[in-house]
Write a structure and sequence with these properties.
By secondary structure, the protein is of the alpha/beta class. It has three domains: about 60 residues, Beta Barrel (Thrombin, subunit H), CATH 2.40.10.170; about 260 residues, 3-Layer(aba) Sandwich (Rossmann fold), CATH 3.40.50.12240; about 90 residues, no CATH class. It is about 35% helix and about 20% strand. It has 13 helices and 21 strands. It is elongated, with a radius of gyration of 25 Å. The relative contact order is 0.12.
Length: about 450
């Protein structure tokens, strides 16, 4: 983000809070970038000649006589092929020791893609994670969040998705990352030899929380360049959107806005939507597929952040710890991909929908049996088989460390069905049973 074409300089601040300051100025546009000494700021409210500036690095140490210079334009990012393999901070400045990127300056936080340029998302995006590809299949151009508790390895999961997904470019927007998580992403991508197709915008927990507000828009601008201009398949990863929303709340609070649900600003829905709606399948073949982490407060799915996110996005991927196998799994009951019907059984094998439904239905029977057992009821022979199946299913197909192709997932599903159940118990069409139910496998099991 470059600060050039400076305009008039102001030298008096009327009011300072921890996140904002107010000055009297003329000819300032909403969203315009300014510099207060060496700190970037943005005009977020204009009332006649009173301008409220959001100071991204905080206002601590500023005096009422600090110099304020307006740039005449909103925050921007220089886009070109030179973005590939680079790591930037929230302001779009390199933090990898390299030189600044040159290219076309594009204003961040632009409008969503015109609907006439959108195509129906119907291209499979395989991740290699069975809990996603089998039960919650993703398509290019989809927007979907990971809901996870703060102690779950969600950053590890999205790093694995980045390595396995069939994408031309991966854009990572990290908000409030610990230094360990930042180094994990960096080392993982370097060790895998894929840094040349990665673009990172990183705000760590040591950086100003307000700078997190810039990260998603920087990442979306880079993603749009590669998806639209270069017609590439882009996977956009954002972590953690809860910390982004917390930064929104900080600014709203300092502007004395009346909070909405869970102390979040009333603009939360539109703020989140302006980011998520950047996911797109272009009619020329390029696409932006967005996977965003939303950490939960004590597992509360009704909190304003996941609640609003669920309305905007096309499903959710829910991580939970399975005590039976001592691993984190993609929960088959609370996860959902609303666009999977566009590809399963069409871009994947014909038996995909039937196998997926049979496995989840029988897993539900196993959870009923587990409840009976916990409440002291006797289990019948079918209940015992269901419980045995549920452990195998979780270990071989739901755990996040499973890395196999979709066909291998389906083959594994058939093996589990034949190992634990009879044909009449699985509820699969006869023509598929004749083709895929292998007698010798069932007998050997």
């Amino acid at each position: 983000m470059k600060a050039r074409a400076f305009r008039k300089t102001y030298t008096r601040i009327e009011r300072i809070t921890k996140a904002t300051c107010e000055i009297r100025a003329s000819d300032v546009k909403f969203g315009e970038l300014a510099w207060i000494e060496d700190r970037p700021a943005q005009a977020i409210r204009i009332m006649e000649d009173m301008v409220t500036l959001q100071v991204f690095r905080g206002t601590e140490g500023l005096s009422t006589h600090s110099n304020i210079i307006f740039t005449g334009r909103p925050p921007s990012l220089a886009v070109s092929e030179l973005l590939s393999g680079r790591i930037f901070n929230a302001l779009g400045l390199p933090i990898d020791g390299g030189t600044p990127v040159t290219g076309e300056e594009r204003v961040i936080k632009g409008a969503a893609v015109n609907p006439v340029k959108r195509a129906k998302p119907n291209v499979l995006l395989a991740t290699g994670i069975a809990g996603i590809d089998l039960n919650n299949t993703l398509v290019t151009g989809q927007k979907i969040p990971f809901f996870a508790d703060p102690d779950q390895p969600y950053n590890k999961v999205i790093a694995e998705v980045a390595l396995r997904a069939e994408a031309d470019k991966i854009v990572l927007g990290g908000m409030g990352l610990s230094n360990d998580d930042f180094l994990f992403f960096k080392n993982t991508f370097e060790a895998a030899g894929v840094m040349d197709k990665i673009v990172c915008f990183i705000n760590t927990s040591e950086d100003s929380p307000l700078e997190r507000l810039l990260v998603p828009d920087m990442a979306c601008t880079a993603a749009e360049y590669f998806a639209n201009d270069k017609q590439q398949k882009v996977l956009l990863l954002l972590s953690d959107m809860t910390l982004y929303a917390d930064a929104l709340a900080i600014v709203a609070n300092k502007m004395d806005q009346i909070p909405s649900k869970d102390s979040m600003p009333g603009s939360l829905y539109s703020d989140l939507a302006s980011i998520y709606e950047k996911a797109v399948q272009f009619d020329h073949g390029g696409s932006i597929t967005m996977i965003a982490v939303t950490t939960l407060n004590e597992g509360d799915i009704t909190h304003a952040i996941p609640d609003n996110t669920g309305y905007i996005t096309e499903g959710q991927l829910f991580l939970r710890y399975d005590s039976d196998i001592s691993k984190v799994i993609v929960d088959p009951f609370r996860s959902l991909s609303r666009l999977k019907q566009n590809v399963i059984g069409k871009k994947t094998r014909e038996d995909h929908p039937q196998v997926m439904n049979a496995l989840i239905r029988l897993y539900a029977d196993a959870m009923d049996a587990k409840t009976k057992k916990e409440n002291g009821f006797d289990l019948n022979e079918y209940d015992e088989r269901c419980l045995s199946f549920s452990k195998d299913y979780a270990m071989k197909l739901l755990a996040i460390d499973i890395n196999i192709s979709v066909d291998e997932m389906l083959d594994t599903g058939w093996e589990l069905l034949q190992k634990h159940f009879e044909k009449y118990e699985v509820g699969i069409k006869n023509e598929l049973l004749k083709k895929y139910w292998r007698k010798e496998t069932a007998e050997s099991a």
